[in-house]
Amino acid sequence: MLEHDTIAPHGGTLVDLLATEAEAVSLASEARHYPKVQVGERELSDLEMLTVGALSPLTGFQGEKDYRSILETMHLTSGLPWSIPVTLSIDEQGMKGVGRADAVALVAREDADPLAFLRLHEVFRRDRETEARAVFGTEDLEHPGVKALHDAGDWCLAGEVRALHLPEHDTFQGYRMTPRETRDAFRERGWKRVVGFQTRNPVHRAHEYIQKCALEIVDGLLLHPLVGATKEDDVPAEVRMRCYEILFQNYYPKDRAMMSVFPAAMRYAGPKEAIWHAICRKNYGCTHFIVGRDHAGVGTYYGTYEAQKVFESFEADELGITPLFFEHSFYCLTCEGMASPKTCPHDDQVRVILSGTKVREMLRKGDKPPPEFSRPEVAEILIEAMRA
Ligand SMILES: [Zn+2]
Questions:
Q1: Which of 94, 126, 196, 326 makes a 20 to 30 Å CA pair with 35?
Q2: For residues 76 and 70, is the Cβ–Cβ distance under 8 A?
Q3: Is the pTM of this model over 0.90?
Q4: 335 CA distance to ligand 1 middle (Å)
């Protein structure tokens, strides 16, 4: 860790798996002699996260010992906290293609050039039931994370990754910062304490309030929207980005807030994902991380405060990054300001609270929610997106 960095990466060293140009050339020619394995959308996100060090200290897809250790203890075999295994699935058919090879070339599409080279240490069989219960707390196939796990191959390929290049993206150019780049940006701005905010939803007044409450006690805010795969009924990332951009333009201080995208796919693993999200943001250089009610939740699978309570499973210095817990917030007509049940003594009649279902219904009809709930600029973008 450089002494002027905000916080040390998880495990102490920021991993960088991207080959130098010369190395990439020789790896590409070596890769031609090895079987190709096509990587799905979710695992492609993990590959990118591994490559840039967002998953430090991991240097590849995990083997069975770490896999078991994570599911049973929320720690790696090395003793470091880790809450969700990072694995590379392959089905029976794919296994036949790999045969006895000691390395494989990872490709995004059948006909594409290799993205990365994986030196195979191990192939193991996934324990789907144990993994579903440990990560998602359920084996219910209605749960989007359990469903994705169910659809994944029976086997996992484990080993060190060497990336030839980063996956190509035609979206969010200028916002795709690696952990090294966000760390550099924090240093340039002189931020020592930085709070990270994970989101897969449009930012309404409640989220803006929480972010700004947190910003009051630190130097800078990293708005870090997840742009990997989400479930189909979530608002698409490009629509959300337009909402964030207009909010940033109009309501956020340029020298105290920045935005960058988080390439991860959503797991909907609630408490386990809250820990995982916090560890990733620590790698991006955040010293603090906002955890709301039902963080990374879906349906009614997790208790309201489960994603906050899970942080108590770790010793204070084990995670390094400091979680900041927030309640749902709202505009209160009597307080005449944003508040939460922690700060407002009034009852629901004077609190501007709308359910997600109600908000979607209003937007679909072309009605703007009250300005105390959503900034009008944000509502306009969402209404337009619903009409398209
Ligand atoms: Zn009040």
A1: 126
A2: yes
A3: yes
A4: 4
